[in-house]
Amino acid sequence: xxxxxxxxxxxxxxxxxxxxxxxxxxxxxxxxxxxxxxxxxxxxxxxxxxxxxxxxxxxxxxxxxxxxxxxxxxxxxxxxxxxxxxxxxxxxxxxxxxxxxxxxxxxxxxxxxxxxxxxxxxxxxxxxxxxxxxxxxxxxxxxxxxxxxxxxxxxxxxxxxxxxxxxxxxxxxxxxxxxxxxxxxxxxxxxxxxxxxxxxxxxxxxxxxxxxxxxxxxxxxxxxxxxxxxxxxxxxxxxxxxxxxxxxxxxxxxxxxxxxxxxxxxxxxxxxxxxxxxxxxxxxxxxxxxxxxxxxxxxxxxxxxxxxxxxxxxxxxxxxxxxxxxxxxxxxxxxxxxxxxxxxxxxxxxxxxxxxxxxxxxxxxxxxxxxxxxxxxxxxxxxxxxxxxxxxxxxxxxxxxxxxxxxxxxxxxxxxxxxxxxxxxxxxxxxxxxxxxxxxxxxxxxxxxxxxxxxxxxxxxxxxxxxxxxxxxxxxxxxxxxx
Length: 483
Hints:
The chain is an alpha+beta fold. It has 17 helices and seven strands.
C-alpha cells in the first residue's frame, strides 16, 4: 500500500457473498415491509375467512377456485418480490470464488480479477455505505464491496473512509421505493374486492336458498339460513347497505311466518328505517318492505297501520311500475286484507276483483298468488252464505294449487275450504275426497298432532255422525302458507 491509496485483496467466496448481502442496507428496506405487510394481509384474511360463520371446506373443483385465489395471489407476490422486484440488483454469479483486487486512490477505483479489469472514476459512484463487514460503493443500482479484512489494518480502513468521504456523496437514507409497493397495493385491491363481492354474493345466495325453503313451507329451515345471511351481513356489509336492510327485512318476514312477532317487529322497523334513509322511496326494496310490514301488522291485529303501509306500497308501486307489476298487485291484495278486517268489505271486494282481473289478463298460466285472490273472494262469499259462488272460487283455487304445488300446506287449506262449503251445501259425500286429500297433505307436512290436522280429522269423522259445528273456511292457520 502507498500513502496515496488503499489496496484491498480477498477471495470472493460463498461466505463473502453472504456477508455482502447482509451488508447491503438498501436491500432489506425495499422488501422487508412489503413482505411483512403481505404476510399480515394474507394470514389476517385467512383468519377472517375461516372464522366466518359461512366458511366451509370446498367439495368441488369449482368451489376450490375462489378459495385458492388469495393463496395464489400471495404466492405470486412472493415470487415477484424475491426474484423480479426492482432494487435486487446484487446477485450471486460468476464472481464467486475469484481473487479480487481493489485499489482505491484519489483518482478513483481500480478493480482487477481473472475475469475483468476496470477503472472507475469517483464521479461514477452515487453513494457509499459502511457496515461491520466492509464498505459498499454504489454505481446506480450496482455495487462494489470492499471487506475490511482485506485491507490489513485499522489505519488503512480509516484512510479508505476518508477517501470515500472526500470523493463520494455521504451515506443517506434510501429513498422510498414506490415501485416495490405497486404489486402489494394491487394485491390489497384485488383481495378487498374479492372479499366484499364474495361476501355479498354469499348473502344473496343464502337469501335465495331461504326463499325457496319458504316456498316449500320449510320455514324453520329457512330461518336458520336467514340467520346465516344476517351474520354474513354483520361481518362484511355496511349497516346502511341495501343488502343489509333487505336481509334484515327477509329475516323479519321469516319470523312472521313462524308467528314470532316479537322478534319480527323490531327487525322490520329497522330495515324500513334504513331503506328510507338510503334509498329512493320508489325503490323496489322499499316497496317490498312496506308490503311485508303491512302483513306483519295484519298478523298482529294492527289493521289501521296495516292499511296505511299497504296503501303506501300500493300507490308507490302504481306510480312507478303501473297496475300490472307484482309489487302493485301485492300492495293491492294487502290493502284489501286490511280493509276486510276494518269492515270496509265493499272496498276490499273491489280491490280483490280488480287484482284477479289483472292476474287473469297478464299471467300466461294460473299461479299460486292467483289462487290466493280466489280464496279471499271465496271467504267473502262464504261469509255472505253464498256457498255456491264460494264453491266455484274455492274449486278453481284448489285446481290451481294442485297444479302448481300439490304437496304444499296451502293446497291442503284450499281442499279444506272446498270440503267445508260442500258440507254447507248438503253434499258431504262430495266433500269427503277433498277433506281426505287435505288430511293427507297436513299429516305429511304439518304432522299428525298439528291443530289444523286434528281439525280436519275431526271434520271427516263428523261426516258419519250427526251434524256439529266445524271450523269455517279461512280459519285454519296452515302454518307456513299464505291463505
